[in-house]
Design brief:
Blueprint lengths: L3 H20 L3 E6 L2 H14 L6 E3 L12 E2 L12 E7 L9 H8 L2 E11 L27 H12 L3 E5 L27 H11 L7 E5 L5 H14 L4 E5 L7 H10 L4 E3 L2 E4 L2 E5 L2 H9 L9 E4 L7 H10 L2 E7 L7 H15 L4 E5 L10 H10 L14 E4 L2 H6 L1 H14 L5 H9 L3 E8 L2 E12 L3 H8 L9 H8 L5 H4 L1 E10 L8 H15 L4 E7 L2 H9 L3 E9 L6 E8 L2 H23 L7 H8 L9 H11 L9 H13 L7 H10 L4 H9 L4 H19 L1
Parallel strand pairs: 1-5, 1-6, 2-3, 2-4, 4-5, 7-13, 7-14, 8-11, 8-12, 12-13, 18-19
Antiparallel strand pairs: 9-10, 10-11, 15-16, 16-17, 17-18, 19-21, 20-21
The chain binds acetyl coenzyme *A.
The site of acetyl coenzyme *A has 21 residues, from strand 18, helix 18, strand 19 and helix 19.
Length: 718
């Protein structure tokens, strides 16, 4: 039962929430103390206020509250798009209960006047690393789970303006509220909540041919709702069909909600919305691509709206860009997923080349809260959501090992280093910062000019299990965390020895955008290989979304492909590729065995499960195999196809041998003749598929192109 002091503090907190509500802001209350005592104060606050949709986030359901108010941190995504008036995040008895991704995602769902209550033990800021050393599963790692991240977080919570700290043994500290910035003028569009949103809707409804619109926004700016409002207006204006795509159907929930609200006379039909003769239809990316290739969708009149474009492979975005002259891409930047980076990273150059007149539209005004909201600034600061790399410097960079304890204490260096990772990768989440600072066996190397990191390499050590643990893992009885490569090679590539071998996985490598292709990536990896030799590592490896340029980088550094995911990753939309390079003699044997197995599987996979793989990726992977040298019989077949005496389908093995030979001889993977031959001979595109892919009139033209490609390659190989 809270005492009088606590009740006075709760009254003060309710007052604080009222002041925040008057400004349309949200606040953060940091409760520290013993678990039961903290929870009792949080429950008292919960019961005293009239909170709309309060939520208690904890690994276990809280006692005394209805279970519908409880959310496990791992389920945070299910609440996106909803609204909470009070959020209690219970990390008071288990540090693992603080999930940075859940914290960032849920903070975005808190409505104006709401409070986010974070409960932690009082000694977060003094956590010793030893508490985290659960090393049984990490037999040879020098360092266990450390606590740098939590200590940094506690320090930031003490320093950051706007935090209400309520320690168990002390007084509630209420910071003064700053003066609110002037509110922007209201939107003149009755359906739109901000002027930014109204501007976005106007541009979406006026999409012009070959002038794609790129809509960017942080979370909570009403970007998806803007797409919904635009769809409603277009349907009302007689547009017959609008296509919408996004990585997952749930990503367009807000779009359809807005559409339904604005067009009550329309009706929902599965993943489509129908109004009179008009229709807005959601298609998943793969289905949309298949229809586009067959020429069943696309063309001058049809509009395509792509939401969360950053999480869709750039290759698919590129195909749609060609097929839909009226197209808009919407993407989040600085979100808790860091997802907008992928878009900038992979796709913007292509957009600039193909459609130089593309238009940008950024939504900066928040919808659920007002500008100057202290919680948004706090979450951004705690999770480093806006981390940016420093400048690209000309001074020759020096190789350094980063000490994580120092890094966690040096906010500006940490910000630049994390900024490099965010800038360079498809998806960097807030949890990656925790992994970087506290992950077991993590090593960080940088190339630094002055004090500014220009390139960074992050590794983790894996495997090294004793025979008994390796056997249990191989049988699937144990799944030790943090051994992705070792487990994957054992389970999917059939290499059990990977569990006992000593593996070092490159978690991330990133070079400053202004410093790429100057040998920095090469320098980092070569130095890591030397270090790995010194540490008696067997194999160095990495896993990443398969993209032709990246594959070329790893191949240039002596890595070979050993496994390719059969389905596209939901986060990146790409197939995960695993590459390894040997370090020890045992590693040489393992790598050779893994590569040979992969190359044996590859043609079969390309014909079926991986038939949709981008041909340049397929070509890059095939290039690693020696491939059979075309024999005398093959040469006859190849000549017959080239001179039009035989159907290509009757000479497929010979044409496969020709393509592999050309690849092994180092022909460019972007070579259109080679790409055509790979797509046809290995990827099961077939003549019908190639008609759509090449955008030609029919089968005869495909066959003619194929013959021509065979003739050209035959000459060059000879
Ligand atoms: C596990 C992972 O982290 S995978 C993700 C890797 N990181 C990223 O994708 C982030 C964005 N990209 C980058 O940060 C950088 O471009 C990196 C890390 C991929 C490469 O670093 P860089 O310093 O640019 O590469 P570096 O100059 O050392 O290139 C070495 C060789 O790799 C090859 N290479 C590098 N990039 C490419 C490319 N885009 N296309 C083809 N070949 C390439 C070349 O053979 C090159 O040698 P060359 O320049 O003499 O021709």
């Amino acid at each position: 039962m809270p005492d009088d002091c606590s009740m006075a503090a709760i009254e003060a907190l309710l007052d604080h929430a009222r002041s925040l509500a008057a400004r349309r802001w949200r606040g953060l209350v940091w409760l520290t103390g013993a678990p039961d005592e903290c929870r009792s104060r949080a429950r008292a606050l919960w019961r005293s206020g009239d909170w709309a949709a309060p939520l208690w986030v904890a690994a276990q359901p809280p006692s005394g509250l209805e279970v519908r108010h409880w959310l496990a941190p791992s389920k945070a995504r299910t609440r996106l798009g909803g609204e909470q008036g009070l959020l209690v995040i219970d990390a008071v008895s288990d540090d693992a209960g603080f999930d940075p991704d859940a914290f960032g995602a849920l903070a975005g769902t808190l409505r104006a006047g709401g409070l986010l209550v974070l409960m932690t033990p009082p000694d977060w800021g003094r956590r010793p690393d030893a508490d985290y050393a659960r090393l049984a599963e990490h037999p040879y790692r020098a360092e266990g789970l450390t606590a740098h991240y939590l200590r940094r977080l506690a320090r930031q919570l003490c320093l950051a303006p706007g935090v209400v700290h309520w320690p168990a043994a002390g007084e509630l500290r209420l910071p003064p509220l700053p003066i609110a910035p002037a509110e922007p003028p209201p939107s003149t569009d009755a359906d739109c909540l901000t002027r930014d949103q109204a501007d976005a809707v106007a541009r979406l409804t006026r999409l012009r041919r070959r002038r794609p619109l790129v809509l960017t926004a942080d979370r909570g700016r009403g970007k998806s709702a803007a797409l919904g409002i635009a769809c409603a207006r277009l349907l009302a204006g007689g547009e017959p069909r609008i296509l919408v795509t996004a990585p997952r159907p749930s990503a367009v929930a807000a779009l359809f909600e807005r559409l339904e609200a604005l067009c009550p006379e329309g009706r929902r039909q599965g993943h489509a919305f129908v109004l009179n003769a008009g229709r807005v239809a959601f298609l998943p990316p793969d289905e949309l691509t298949a229809l586009t290739r067959r020429g069943e969708v696309g063309g001058p009149g049809q509009r395509l709206l792509v939401d969360e474009a950053a999480a869709i492979p750039a290759a698919l975005l590129g195909e749609w860009l060609e097929a839909f002259p009226r197209i808009a891409f919407a993407t989040t930047v600085h979100g808790y997923e860091g997802s907008g980076r992928g878009f900038a990273l992979r796709f913007r150059r292509r957009l600039e080349q193909r459609t130089p007149e593309w238009q940008a539209c950024h939504l900066s005004e928040p919808i659920r809260w007002a500008a100057g909201d202290p919680l948004e600034a706090l979450v951004t600061r705690l999770l480093l959501l806006d981390a940016e790399p420093g400048d690209a410097l000309d001074a020759p960079p020096t190789l350094r090992r980063a000490r994580r304890a120092e890094l966690a204490n040096d906010e500006s260096r940490l910000r630049e280093l994390f900024g490099l990772l965010v800038q360079a990768h498809y998806r960097t989440t807030p949890s990656d910062l925790r992994r970087l600072l506290d992950g077991p066996g993590v090593g960080i190397a940088t190339l630094t000019a002055g004090i500014s990191p220009q390139a960074v390499l992050v590794t983790t050590d894996e495997g090294g299990f004793d025979a008994e643990l390796a056997e249990r893992v191989a049988r699937g009885e144990r799944r030790p965390r943090g051994h992705l490569m070792a487990q994957s090679l054992a389970a999917h590539a059939g290499c059990r020895e990977a569990l006992s071998g000593r593996l070092r996985r490159v978690l991330r490598i990133a070079v400053h955008p202004g410093q790429r292709r100057r040998g920095l990536g090469r320098r980092l990896l070569e130095a890591e290989r030397q270090r790995a030799r010194h540490d008696s590592i067997d194999l160095l490896g990495a896993s990443f979304g398969a993209e032709a340029g990246l594959i070329a980088f790893w191949q240039a550094l002596g890595f070979c492909a050993v496994r390719l995911g059969l389905t596209r990753e939901t986060a990146t939309g790409e197939h995960a590729l695993m590459v390894v390079a040997p370090v020890s003699a045992r590693g040489e044997r393992l790598a050779a065995d893994l590569q040979a197995r992969f190359q044996r599987q590859l043609p079969g996979l390309l014909a079926f499960e991986l038939a949709g793989l981008e041909p340049e990726v397929a070509a890059a992977l095939l290039a690693e195999g020696e491939g059979p040298v075309p024999g005398p019989g093959d040469l006859v077949d190849i000549d017959d196809v080239a001179f039009g005496h035989r159907e290509p389908a009757l000479a497929r093995p010979a044409l496969q041998a020709l393509a592999r030979r050309a690849l092994a001889m180092g022909f460019s993977r972007d070579d259109p003749d080679l790409g055509l031959l790979v797509a046809w001979a290995f990827q099961g595109y077939g003549t019908g598929g190639l008609v759509a892919w090449l955008r030609v009139s029919g089968q005869r033209e495909v066959t003619a192109r194929l013959r021509q490609a065979v003739a050209v390659l035959r000459e060059r190989v000879a």
